[in-house]
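User: Some background: our group keeps a shared notebook of sequences we're curious about, and every so often someone picks one and asks for a predicted structure to add to the entry. Today it's my turn. The entry only has the sequence so far, pasted here. Could you supply the structure so I can complete it?
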Amino acid sequence: MTAPSLWEVLDRACNTGPIMATKEFDMKIFSTASRLVKEYDIRYDPETPVPSDERLADDVWKAGLQLFSEVGTYCLNSSRVIRFEESEIKEGIKELRGEAVIGEGTETRTLKLRDVDDKSPPSIVCGGVIESNMPEGELFIKLYQSIAQEPLIDGFYVGPPLQSSEGKLVRSGTPLETHQGRSMVAWVREATRRAGRPGLHFISACTAAIANVAACDPVDGLRRTDGIVSTIMPELKTDYENLNKIVHSQDYGCIKHVYNGGMIGGWGGGPEGALVVAIANAIMAVMVYKIGIGESYHALGYLRASTPNYSAFVTRPCLWGSSIGGQALSRNTKIINTVVAMTNSGPGTEMQFQEITAAIAAAIPCGREGLSQGTRRFKVRPLLGSGLENRFWGEVGHAMAGVKRDFANMLAEEMVSKYEHRITRDSDGGPPGHTFDEIYDLKTLQPRKKFLQVYENVKKDLRDLGLDI
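Assistant: Of course. Here's the predicted structure to add to the notebook entry:
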């Protein structure tokens, strides 16, 4: 027996899966996740952001597997549930390769599985800027050139993309977004050429599938060694837009990069249930989006605490979920599981460097692979991002290789204690940070002295705590 093909999965999504109301599906997630948290006695410990509890990691895996087996995936466009037999899921997990090749020429990299407490450095550091409104053209090119010129960067994430195309407001799914997808890739190509690294891997996160399709060109556009981002929607949901990205990625032969997470306060409930949902989402990435078949990798996104007026990342429950989730997948699957973290604070600040350190401490020692960086998510203003925080991601990620989880727990605790008081429901989450043109001299494309000093001060603090950076 083999796992269902992508075409069989799409048939279930579009034609044959049982029809169910969205609310009924959501309530099933809530009731099932709540039951499994109790059955497996999964308990969040706020005093231990990076646990070393292998029983807990294995129980979280079992609970997530059971949740996906019982609930399945919901397609929002068709209102159909994509269900899998337990035997199909087991076969799908067996088919995982545990390896992916990205990049071209001298920039070719091979991602491999990492164990918990693995002594090897991450195979890749995938940098970039997440959810910052970039201007079109030259400033966009220079910002990504500042990232591409960092030696420890092996690729980067681009998007979600700009809010304008040819100076006009972009609305999702419109022809302007299609044009924007192609333009964005051309600027990325120019940035990597200027940095002397034309084969550098990148992943495109345009919202509309057609924008990614338009960007694909093995010479001047998105190559087969680059990637397209597809997301798993909260919770255990997909839609035709994301499925179109998956189909095109498979037909064209480029990298599939799938992002998912769990929302604390969402249909999974508290941190424990949100983590179980996040594991189920990872299994959905295997079964529905077919990561591990062909070149692909997966980002187990952070748990995040959210309400309509508040959202927080890189906090104690988020770190706990990242740590245990990473261990659960590393110990039980061949999913190449990368870390992505969106900081609460902005670039060029001490707090962002501290958040990055905490995020990596809860990831690399816990069996997770290539790092994906993120900048401030909320209260976005143009040009929030630079090569400097990407450099720091790479340096801390490599320094964390071989670090044991008890040391990582101490480090994460030290970092969180320095900034957690700034993240409350009544605050803005931390300092908004500085724009690219404030942090970097645009002529030399090097960071300005005062921001280098902040960066060096945090590195000194880490050395004082025992990290060999």
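Suggested note for the entry: The radius of gyration is 21 Å. The first helix runs from residue 6 to 16.
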